[in-house]
Amino acid sequence: MMKCLVAHETRRTKDAVSRREEEITAEALRFGRGAENEVYLPDPRVPLQFARLRRVGDRLVIQAEGTADLRVNGVVLRTASVSPGDTIGLGPYEITIDEPPEGADTAITVRLVEPLGDDLQQLLARSQTGLAATRLSKRMWSWALFLGIFAVFLALPIAAFFLRGTDEAVSPMLLEAEKPPDSGEPRRWLPIRLDSPWISGEISGPHKFIAKDCNLCHQKAFVQVPNEACLACHKDVGQHADPVKFPLATLVQVRCQQCHKEHEGPKPIIRADQALCVACHGDLKRQAAKTTLMDTADFERHHPDFRPNVMVDPWTRTTKRIGLNAQPREMSNVRFSHKKHLVANGVRSPKGKQKLGCGDCHQPAPGGAGMKPIDMESHCQACHALDFEKNAPSLPHRRPEAVEATIRGYYSALAIRGGVKDADAPPAVRRRAGTPLPVTTTKDVLAWVNKRTSKGVAFAFSKARCGFCHEVRKDGAGSAGGAPGGTKWRIKALVTDRWLVKGNFDHASHTAVTCMGCHKATTSDSSGDVLLPPLASCRECHGGEKATAKVPSTCILCHDFHLSGRGRM
Description:
Layout: E1 2-11, E2 17-26, E3 28-32, E4 39-40, E5 51-56, E6 59-64, E7 70-72, E8 75-77, E9 79-82, E10 87-90, E11 93-98, E12 106-112, H1 119-127, H2 138-162, E13 170-174, E14 189-193, H3 227-231, H4 275-281, H5 284-287, E15 309-313, E16 318-321, H6 338-341, H7 376-380, H8 400-417, H9 427-430, H10 442-460, H11 466-469, E17 472-475, E18 488-491, H12 515-518, H13 535-539, E19 542-543, E20 551-552
Parallel strand pairs: 1-12, 3-4, 19-20
Antiparallel strand pairs: 1-2, 3-5, 5-6, 6-9, 7-8, 7-10, 10-11, 11-12, 13-14, 15-16, 17-18
Helix pairs in contact: 8-10
């Protein structure tokens, strides 16, 4: 950047000269009649863009921009190096390069040395014609224009409002551009509404279907659209915050139109500027003393650390938001190691070594924003069998009661069918398969079923099966398997499906980034690891609202304004 002191000298009389100075900081000084130039030369003989003065190394270089030439110390040039004491002629102006004062890179003085004189004023005077010369009355034209404007822009639109829905509310107008005159086809008349002068712009895309029913929103003449008109259709729109805890956030006194601007064409009608949110969230404690949310003002410069919502006690279904800097742990009661499943040479499986990637388990949900849930049958059971006895069916991956019922049902079916090769089984269970079960042996058969069920349940909930991946609890409150004095087994595995409950993330918009680019799964040896990328990772691509080298990101990009579960607006 170049810091330059620009002085404009204007000669008032023969001996009086006025001087105005300004300090300009820019990469280069542009001279011309265009308003975008750093040095504005208003004389009509000067082109819109005339020349550019810039610093190249330790030299000052002046270069012509248009077709006009420069005069550097009286010599006509297109480009020249200049230094203090040199004079540059730009049309009727003379630019002198001065010694720069302390703190400035250069200094120049601008003088108009060839003024237009009186010729221009005389030409303008001869070119103007007054209304009096036409013998037309100013008063007559004033009244005529007033009445015309009154009729077109006030009387007719008001009449159209009260005649809405009748034929009088429209007026025919020939659509000249519909058919060219030489096409041989008759041009048709296009009806337009008399209140069209009041239409401030094209209606948005989502509201096109009600574009002709203005009275649906504009219910009273000369009255702004009420919130009730919007809520008649958008009745399920939620509050922004809990109105009991934060009464200021109920937005009762705020009109929908303050945030949702209609009649601005196809552009979105949802306000997305950062100031909308920062007005309150820049100093939340002043707005709502009870809030636990952190202040924020700009994603790149002032945004709190991510605070994922993690499971801290699955037995009581308790979750808590903990900042990533505090290294939160996900207490889900699930034992899993990403590191062991993502080894480079593959993991052991019934089909031999199998190389796994993120996509083998994590599949995008419809729409691509989130991921489908992981389930035992689709992702785990091929390697981690849930059998409890040879030739027995696999156990269901469901509640412990269902597991116990499956095991009991299996042994009950064996006892009823007979033919069981178990030396400890009663004769009724070892009888020839297919023969009727003697009624007198029911007690013995039931005891055998209870015994085998208890043994099968204990194995199913041991570390060889369910306990391999889950924390299993047992207490004496029940009688698992129906065995007297049996143990009731309990498993509670809960994984939070959304870490960022206050924000939105769309995986479909980030397909250019690999999974490992954000989630460091290959180094995670515990399911308690919260594999959420830090704020700095997002800032590699996303900047603040006014970012130029990154994706400009406002609050509304990741956060919804109207939230469900907060009550209706």
